[in-house]
Design a protein that fits this description.
The complex is a heterotrimer of chains A (about 290), B (about 325) and C (about 400). By secondary structure, chain B is an all-alpha fold. Chain B is built from 14 helices and two strands; from the N terminus they run αααααβααααβααααα. In chain C, strand 12 and strand 13 form a beta hairpin. Classes of the chains: A mainly alpha (about 290), B mainly alpha (about 325), C alpha/beta (about 400).
Chain lengths: ~290, ~325, ~400
Amino acid sequence: MHLPDVQDLLQATVTGGLLGGLFALTALGLSLVVGVMRLVNLVHGELVVLGAYIAFWVTGNVGGDPLVMLPVVALVAAALGAPVQRLLLQPLARHGTEAPLLTTFALSVVAQNLLILGFTGNTRSIDRDYTRSLVHLGSVTVPTIYLISFAISAVVSLAVHLLVTRSAFGRRLRAASEDPVAASVVGVRVGGLHTITYAMAAAVAAVGGALLGMCFSFTPTSGIEYLLTGFTVVVLGGLGSVKGTFVAGVALGLVESWGAVVMGDGYRLFVGLLVLLVFLTVRPQGLFGRTA
Amino acid sequence: MSLVESRPAAGPARPAPRPGVRAAAPAVLSLLALLVIGMALPYLVGPYQQEVGYRVVQLAALATAWNLMAGYGGLVSLGSAAFIGIGAYTAAETGNNYGWPLVACIAAGAVVAALFSVVVSPAMFRLRGLYFTIGTLALAEALRLLMINIGTFGGASGIVLRTPALEVYQLFWWALVIALLATVVVLVVLATPASLSLRSVRDDEDVAKQMGVFTFRTKLWAFATASAVMGLVGGLQATKLGVIEPYGSFGISWSVDIVAVAIIGGLGTRCGPWVGALFYVVLGELLRDYPEVHTAITGIVLVLVIRFAPSGIWGTAAAVVMERRHG
Amino acid sequence: MYRPVHARLVRAGVATALAVALTACGGGPKTDSGSNNGDTIVIGASIPLSGPLAGFGSFQKWGYQHAVDEVNAAGGIEIDGEKKKVELKLLDDKTDPNVVSSNTQTLISKDDVDALLGSCTPALVTAGAVVADRAKVPFVTGCSPLTAFTSVQDWTYAWDIFFLEPEIAALPFQTLAESGQKTNGKVAILHDNGPDGQVVGGQVWPAIADQSGFDVVANVEFPTDNTDFSAAVQKAKDSGADVLLVDAVTPQAVSIRKQMETAGYHPKFIQMEKGAEPVQFAEALGDLANGVTVGAYWDPSFDYPGAAELATAFEKETGQTQSQHIADSYTAAKVLLDAIAAAGSTDKEKINAAIGETDGDYPVGPVKFADDHTAKLAVAEVQWQDGSTVVVSPADQATGDLLFPAS
């Protein structure tokens, strides 16, 4: 450990904050699923990685720019997520939290292996001009792709936030998550809402994964890290709060980057987990959640 | 909401188990039979079956411990790996540095694992339901990262055990003893009023507290007991491997295998862990000849079993039998 | 309702009596798996076909199978005067040492293997070697750097064919000296904290750097599953080092190279040990891979018997680009099969003794085991240029010139 100089700290702050926006995007799906359906979605990490692979495959075989293809990634992921929820998870909803949890874990194992069979275990990365270039913001250098990712994350988060807080769909969603029984009594089709939520979560996670695939590298087993980061952000930000998730993501990005500058990159994830544990004990409802 | 819901009152109720020796007899005899058969097994079958038997019994022990915490206590943990790893490293260090016999080494593993659970419990027990689940996952992963990064216990390279190796049948016997011990402990707990406290905490902790149950103490006993058993298993596994390192000893696959076995068997049932362990290991062995797809197929089988038998194999079988008798 | 207690008692009693009776007849607990029925020679291997190391596993699978297929095509191996075919039994260890241990045990006890081949990376190899050594079953492996292998214990039945960490660590300095290129003498080191990462990055590189007159201005360590290297790259950049030495696996090496670019860090010499060797590195990075150097223990251009043919066969059969791991795994299997042939028997002691006598030229190089059961492979420096590897050092094996500066 050593005291970093101001320039390093400034650099870490800017890049960490920007990257945090991307963390927020990848965690948004988990926040929705945990908040609305109380589901510990252990396959979330694979949904993120799946997004990277979909982007990789589509741009490699169909062509096009990965950023332009993001909506395609989102649609494919949603199309995969919806039947999974409807056919495998929905029927188990009555049986408590453990059965769906185990199903999502089993699905993550299946997903990992299907990815290995389909793409081999080789490391992949999505490479374009803008994934290599950098931008100067004053004395700080920032990877262009971080700026792009942050912008996309902000836009998508805002869109989801508006959807949840301002639309009729959002009202039904909030009703269903607060009190599913009461909601169904007044005519809200809770089951259908859950399926749509899960599909949305998969879509958003996949978009985040595609962007991560442009920033870093990925393999079929890269998912677990994004699962843990996702949980950290979700707990930090408060369940089901989109605004909270975004702020928490940025905060986590900052904290992890500072931790890395002071203690080394190896402690990045450790610092994140520490933050998670601290928040769970001190303020489990997160920064923006209401006390349960 | 928990997997094991109270049964509806329709139909003639099953007579409540009376405490006392007569009621305990079937359980005790089953365990005795298991012990005798287990002891005899290595004389009848070769090292392959002994190895498979070891894995079945090891998972049964772990799942029994986890079941106490999760099935009966509602503490659904994804952090079992932490306690298994602690048990492994403690046994390795005490064996290497103090030359203790195996019993002492794995017992030390249990003690340290239990102590760790006590230390983290004030923080962990503030978390309810799925927050607790997430918290245990984070705890286990944080511990794994710590062990990798800090060189004191060998870092990523781990520790080589200098204690004498055991034959497969000896490992099997040890694992069997641990599993039976765990089962006995669980049965004893279930026969005492403590089990009511535990179940009341699982069903509704706030109400239980208001009714006078010492919820923290109750949860702690379950958590510490389960952790101790996992520490025992970890210590024995270290002896089996001969070399331990953080990825193998603190790996998340432990935590999830245990959950899979407990749920497949039947959460909150006494026989569930054993049935689940047997199913899980046998499934793995049946798929042995298809190395490239066996993990995928295992996953698919798990998904299907849970989808169509959410109470687990034993849980569903028991329910079917009950219906036949009373329906 | 409860079954009457006494019925249960009776059943338990019968079971007990039966068990005891059988026990008394059986002698001691069974520890011996016996030997297989002898129709075929059975070779077992637990390799990572799923999990993070699935990439290595697929190369090993090909290498092992190719050696076995070759021997079978020639009619098999002569055992006690009779030609027998070889059967390869493969199991997936899911990149988990616990599974390696269990798999190795069941290969010995269920499949009655005559000998074993190893997994990949020290943790997995060691897990299998320990079981094999205890069970006195010959075990030949590659894919475990020699110091990591010998530091575990003295081996009786386990044998390793791979490179020595200090030799591969010396390559960048050797290459720079040979090329005569000038740098500012500053070295930055980024390494993972696995067993060989710590040896190479933590000990050998700093030592050789010192001896060669270089100044180590940064040395950063990270765990093998880290994905974001901003802090490490920033530190290296701030140090102003012209020479960057990295020891990390491929996913990390790819991320580091990308992050170097987006941080604007352009050192003149970039060594990426381990990670830059496989072709997936170049595929993932495109032209960013050009200029990166890495130590290799094999290249199809090396003047060893069958080297080029092995690469061609692999590419033809699988449609993928060759990797040095096909040579190592193929050779390990071939050495084992040759030893069995030399022993002319499936007796494990004889096979083991024969392995120890190995002294021949194989596609991966000359193989002769030292007293510590290791066979050292010579190493060379290769560099990515235009999407393929060029040997740049030592001079007598070079197929091209060093591209300098690297970025």
